[in-house]
């Protein structure tokens, strides 16, 4: 049996284990070790016993990583901001402005999701935090249930692209791109998403006014308070995103400063009986422990799995197959994106980045003309570094779509669970227009890569 | 889960949280020094950052990251794909969960064993961090302890499950 | 093939180290053994782990061979560091490679657990600065400079400048945003990192001398070697040693040329220190050497002797 066949069998076993509800990280480690054992039986030069020796250092080295330290920091930052009720201040503050339009509260929810996305590394956390804050308000004002939940499920996906984003960090580490440049590349596509979503809401409520109530502007005093409370939040969140966007901070310092500012502001709010209590800080840390522990274990699992797939020769085989195929380069990217959308219906975003992207990336580099291809000589008219960035943005948008597509739309699950009485089906229906508009956005970035590449190009001189 | 173990596991995660806050503090000081330097430059002075800051972050996070694992297991936080399993009977789901816990225990102990050997290697090799020159091996210890606690939590979960049946 | 050997390294398959060194070597081995040995190269850490783990992997037999940077695991190779020190290495990889060959018995202890196939250096670090032209030690004081290695960091400190550590992919933007004002790297990495456009000046010592270098280790697992039949052992042994070392010195000197060309073409200036200024830099470099001697002394290693022998051998091969 050839190595490639064992590799493919390993992939099948991996999916089978996942379908059995074996945790993703565990399944990866098991298939990685088991697969290497199988390889050692057929390819004698891949001896199994010495292979095991790498576990002396593999785990420690996969966590002793400066770049990855931004992951727990961003996660902690998100939980602290949420527990200090900054998410509520953000939503109410945006609402003070948008509330006077029909559908304005829904637009505020989108704006607040984007804002919260700027301190929160994950889509799921963005969806659930903003869901808790905005959903009661939307329901109180009699927004149609499926519309309300749909808006929030879609808005939550902004967390993955608006920097900082754990997904972007991990993608950058996998393909060895600069994390900072990935963040910068995500800014314009992220803003486009916000704009498109808000336009979509305006159009939808115009076509079907029954979905949203008449505009109900806030009372003057309420509005004043909301705006006053919005200011510190905007300052803190703005410092983080501007610092990253302008390249003043690299990601770990940005995350560190972010945690520090939110922590200090949260303690200051104690004077008014709000903000971060000891219990809230404890909660934030423990929630960070769960999310970070999960992510670190999946990262380690992916490392083990990678060692198996490359020993089996799988990525190489795929790259040479794609290199030999007569498909247009753009066609290959489109096929990849479609495959990612389909896989995204079943897998969580992190595992997709870790399992699938390592296969796709070498193929792309190969058809582009290699690592040292220049813009002039390459298939996509960009060098390998820019290709990394562009493809990263595209694939992350596509992967985030998986969060709102049936059957496994994690954002939809979370929001429906929060709402309690809204049927999942209705939420999926409510998400549909946003899904359509996302496809439009993907098309734009696909045909105009400059949307993603503009900011990093500008800032790298 | 016994109260005492529960307390230890949460405490261990909170300790990791404190380590994370240490990183936050070091980062803030370092970044502030960097900012101060930019300003001082205008007056022909300069302020240096924390030397070995990256080493510090790398070593501290290596400990904290693994210290999150036992609590993550306690909360069953390791992400899994729910889609298909929901269709299985309760009994089948139960068996799968037991198998998952057993496999978790095996992998955690397997990793603890190898990581201990890795720690000995790091000690014998004098492996150290580039700028600070701190030895690496002490930073393996929280990792090994975490892996053992992880196995212990999974074992407790398995036994309470058995007890329920 | 009768024997398949795995070779693991951390660079891309398009990097000069892969295409001009490891791949030709693997092909030569295949040819000389009449196809009985196949060396399968896995670039980009494809077999798993991070670059600092490569040495352990080859020592423990996870893979059969690696090409790695001893500096990734500070403390593990105390002796070879002598060749990285400023004022010890001059500016010619071929010369320093020959010196390493000559005094290898003195540093062999570092590699006692593996079979070293080649220990070599790159041509050396120059100081590339974004906007400030450095012509004396005073100019460099207070600058923030990306450090290439442990002893490189010491040197930057000794200059009165601030060493900043960062991964190589972050260097371009850090230079363009002023996070650092310069970096100590060889010209070899100019093409992939656009450094020619980002830096205006590249400082070298007089006579193209560099400020220290990095050492590299190409090594084989001992058991993997011992398992080979004698005639295949001979194939390996015939392809290592002084000739290979010299060829690779030439290769590593030559990979500098495209980068130097790019810097000149971009309107950048390659600044040579004059004799007086160079004397000041060398004096400070000497302090770094002294610090290193003291530090390895704590491990019971006679650093002074290593420095003297290394300098003697380099001087000898320079002519
Ligand atoms: Na985000
Ligand atoms: Na230049």
From TrEMBL, chain A:
<keyword id="KW-0997">Cell inner membrane</keyword>
<feature type="transmembrane region" description="Helical">
    <location>
        <begin position="186"/>
        <end position="205"/>
    </location>
</feature>
<keyword id="KW-0813">Transport</keyword>
<feature type="transmembrane region" description="Helical">
    <location>
        <begin position="226"/>
        <end position="249"/>
    </location>
</feature>
<dbReference type="GO" id="GO:0022857">
    <property type="term" value="F:transmembrane transporter activity"/>
</dbReference>
<dbReference type="GO" id="GO:0005886">
    <property type="term" value="C:plasma membrane"/>
</dbReference>
<keyword id="KW-1003">Cell membrane</keyword>
<feature type="transmembrane region" description="Helical">
    <location>
        <begin position="350"/>
        <end position="369"/>
    </location>
</feature>
<feature type="transmembrane region" description="Helical">
    <location>
        <begin position="58"/>
        <end position="81"/>
    </location>
</feature>
<feature type="transmembrane region" description="Helical">
    <location>
        <begin position="255"/>
        <end position="273"/>
    </location>
</feature>
<comment type="function">
    <text>Part of the tripartite ATP-independent periplasmic (TRAP) transport system.</text>
</comment>
<feature type="transmembrane region" description="Helical">
    <location>
        <begin position="101"/>
        <end position="125"/>
    </location>
</feature>
<dbReference type="InterPro" id="IPR004681">
    <property type="entry name" value="TRAP_DctM"/>
</dbReference>
<feature type="transmembrane region" description="Helical">
    <location>
        <begin position="431"/>
        <end position="455"/>
    </location>
</feature>
<feature type="transmembrane region" description="Helical">
    <location>
        <begin position="5"/>
        <end position="22"/>
    </location>
</feature>
<keyword id="KW-1133">Transmembrane helix</keyword>
<dbReference type="InterPro" id="IPR010656">
    <property type="entry name" value="DctM"/>
</dbReference>
<feature type="domain" description="TRAP C4-dicarboxylate transport system permease DctM subunit">
    <location>
        <begin position="11"/>
        <end position="450"/>
    </location>
</feature>
<feature type="transmembrane region" description="Helical">
    <location>
        <begin position="321"/>
        <end position="343"/>
    </location>
</feature>
<dbReference type="Pfam" id="PF06808">
    <property type="entry name" value="DctM"/>
</dbReference>
<keyword id="KW-0472">Membrane</keyword>
<feature type="transmembrane region" description="Helical">
    <location>
        <begin position="146"/>
        <end position="174"/>
    </location>
</feature>
Automatic annotation (TrEMBL), chain B:
<dbReference type="InterPro" id="IPR055348">
    <property type="entry name" value="DctQ"/>
</dbReference>
<dbReference type="Pfam" id="PF04290">
    <property type="entry name" value="DctQ"/>
</dbReference>
<keyword id="KW-0472">Membrane</keyword>
<feature type="transmembrane region" description="Helical">
    <location>
        <begin position="137"/>
        <end position="158"/>
    </location>
</feature>
<dbReference type="InterPro" id="IPR007387">
    <property type="entry name" value="TRAP_DctQ"/>
</dbReference>
<comment type="similarity">
    <text>Belongs to the TRAP transporter small permease family.</text>
</comment>
<keyword id="KW-0997">Cell inner membrane</keyword>
<keyword id="KW-0813">Transport</keyword>
<feature type="domain" description="Tripartite ATP-independent periplasmic transporters DctQ component">
    <location>
        <begin position="50"/>
        <end position="158"/>
    </location>
</feature>
<feature type="transmembrane region" description="Helical">
    <location>
        <begin position="95"/>
        <end position="117"/>
    </location>
</feature>
<feature type="transmembrane region" description="Helical">
    <location>
        <begin position="56"/>
        <end position="74"/>
    </location>
</feature>
<dbReference type="GO" id="GO:0022857">
    <property type="term" value="F:transmembrane transporter activity"/>
</dbReference>
<comment type="function">
    <text>Part of the tripartite ATP-independent periplasmic (TRAP) transport system.</text>
</comment>
<keyword id="KW-0812">Transmembrane</keyword>
<protein>
    <recommendedName>
        <fullName>TRAP transporter small permease protein</fullName>
    </recommendedName>
</protein>
<keyword id="KW-1003">Cell membrane</keyword>
<feature type="transmembrane region" description="Helical">
    <location>
        <begin position="12"/>
        <end position="36"/>
    </location>
</feature>
<keyword id="KW-1133">Transmembrane helix</keyword>
<dbReference type="GO" id="GO:0005886">
    <property type="term" value="C:plasma membrane"/>
</dbReference>
<comment type="subunit">
    <text>The complex comprises the extracytoplasmic solute receptor protein and the two transmembrane proteins.</text>
</comment>
